Amino acid sequence: MAPNDSAHTTEEARDLVAGRRKAARYLVPVGVAGVAAATIGLVPALAASGDPDLPKISAQQLIEKIAASDAQQLSGTMKIKTDLGLPSFGGLGSFAPKGGAGKGGSSASPDSKLMELASGSHTLRVAADGPDKQKLSVLDNASEYSVIHSGADVWAYDSASNEVYHSKRAPGGVREGRPGKAPEALPATPKALAEQALKAVDPTTSVTVDGTSHVAGRDAYQLVIKPKQSGSTIGAIRIAVDAKNGVPLKFTLAPSGGGKAVIDAGFAKVDFGKPSASTFDFTPPKGAKVTQDDGKGHEGKGHDGRAHGGKDLKGSRGEEFKGLNVIGKGWNSIARLDVPGGKGIPSAPSGKGGKGDVPPEARKFLDSLGDKVTGKFGSGTVFKTRLINALVTDDGKVYVGAVNKDALVNAANAAK
Questions:
Q1: Which of these, 335, 333, 306, lies nearest to 323 by C-alpha position?
Q2: DSSP assigned state of 315
Q3: Which end of the chain is more exposed for a tag (fewer CB within 10 A), N or C?
């Protein structure tokens, strides 16, 4: 086993992790689930046993090795196990997020299909040949779902429903029929996920090299990232980094509360050779329903719900989330914003013929996630997962972050 070494980066964090930004939507728990799906979309899993004897390396050198990695070609099989502590989405009916391509959406739309990666165990096949050719396939017992990016085309196919989703990019990466940049795909390699984790590294972070391992038959260093602060829901992030080319091979996120990992994912097999060109070919099967995403349903908005050129998030009725502010630093950063209309979570219908903003089954789902809390700020509900938590106050304030309930309540009290 290689000797342990440690180093701490001093670069200030540039962003909140993507999950924190997107979690602060009008119906926070569903946003949290979507964030989780986006976060794990192409994370890797399953390591082999054994500890290779590798040259000593510092944490700073290993981070630089990841950043300098230029491996753009790979193919392999990954396993993903995710436990966010979310209840089943079954029974939500039309309340659950759907694809936004064309009228009625499509079951093959990546926006809806990849939500399934937010829980349970999944087997994936991945392939990449540079920035313009990637493929991800989610394998099931009797079906397969694939997303293929080849040049200007993005195809997705769901064999279970025999539906196809298609979008096209004009030169420069702009989606045809849509202003601004096209929505970015989920990370096509483990490197992209590791880079997201490394954005959170600042003086509030401990970064160490914790020995070595074998992953998918390759020698790897173990990079461990931990918050120095208390109050974060994240206990540690462990990244197995290929000793030869610096590509992250395995990603594990352990919660501060203990128990099994929130995300445990990595390559079971990997090959850094050039994939066959035919890997990225796709022709819609005969009889398949094809939905063309012309961008009209998303005009003026980016993939995160923000108006292009603007800074405010949009609510479900087009109202703007206002007062966006970041409280605290590092791993304990909390995003604060105002719900449209100045009210808390919408109510469910009451009584026969009663009116409300949320269907009863959706209200039940929200309540199953929430804990009622009170404080100097008044009263509200804390919605919980094992990773992202959110406090929605009854007077329409939202506090969201990868922090525990007490941290959210303290932030709300301090804002008064």
A1: 335
A2: -
A3: C
Q: pLDDT tens for residues 172-214?
A: 444 443 333 333 444 435 666 677 778 878 888 999 999 999 9
pLDDT in tens, 333-384: 999 988 776 666 655 454 444 445 556 666 666 666 688 999 999 999 999 8
CB atoms within 10 A of CB 375: 16
Helix axes of 28-40 and 360-369: crossing angle, nearest 10 degrees:
70
User: Which class would CATH give 5-298?
Assistant: mainly beta
**What single-letter amino acid sits at 220?**
A
Which single residue is written with the structure tokens 């995403």?
293
* Alpha-carbon torsion (62, 63, 69, 75), positive or negative: positive
Distance of alpha carbon 120 from alpha carbon 82, whole angstroms: 5
Structure tokens at 387: 């990773």
Nearest to 198, CA basis, from 229, 239, 232, 228: 239
Q: Give the whole-angstrom CA distance, residue 382 versus residue 393.
A: 8
DSSP letter at 307? B
Please tell me the distance from the alpha carbon of residue 256 to that of residue 116, in angstroms, as a whole number: 25
315/398 Cα distance (integer angstroms): 13
Helices (H) and strands (E) in the chain, counts: 7, 20
CA 108 to chain CA centroid, nearest Å? 19
In the chain, what are the domain boundaries?
A: 5-298, 322-415
CATH number of 322-415: 3.30.310
Q: Which helix (H) or strand (E) holds 192?
A: helix 190-198
pLDDT digits (tens, 9 = 90+) for 284-297: 999 999 999 876 54
What is the reported pTM? 0.72
